[in-house]
Amino acid sequence: MAFDLLCKDDLLRPRIRSASSLTLRSQSNYQTPPLTELQRLLWAHQPSTGHVNEVWPNLYVGDLFTARDKEQLRRMGITHIVNAAAGRFHIDTGAKFYRDLPVDYYGIEADDDPHFDLSIYFYQAARYIRAALNSPREY
Fold first, then answer.
1. In the predicted model, is pLDDT for residue 5 greater than 90?
2. pLDDT digits over 27-78, tens only?
3. Where are the alpha helices (DSSP H) in the chain?
4. With contact defined as beta carbons under 8 Å apart, do 94 and 117 qualify?
5. How many domains in the chain?
6. Cα–Cα distance between 45 and 120 in angstroms, integer?
7. Domain with 121 in it
8. Per the domain annotation, does 111 fall within a domain?
């Protein structure tokens, strides 16, 4: 796959904070959810919770309120978190914040600025998300 050929020499080095080392290997066993599951998400007419939404099976997008609500994360069975606003001047949750939860944390120190080039983080974040979707879900 041509996208897999993009590697460290092709991308800028992002600054990343993580609780565990990022030794994500390419995982070939991930399978796209069946069409019926994707249709369920698109056509389920579930009202937005306001702070978090399921955008793909077992993949949620949330805001600051969700990121800081440990009890809601626990109830939802969240096992991995990607924070695109990591750092002490942004949403400073970090791995230490979640130490009492069974959560793996991946932080990206991105600025909330229309000129900030977030694309340099896409490949590594996508690899992390893919590995998270492949990992066994334990609640």
1. no
2. 456 677 787 877 776 666 566 667 888 888 888 888 889 999 999 999 999 9
3. 35-43, 64-68, 70-76, 94-97, 122-134
4. no
5. 1
6. 34
7. 36-43+50-139
8. yes
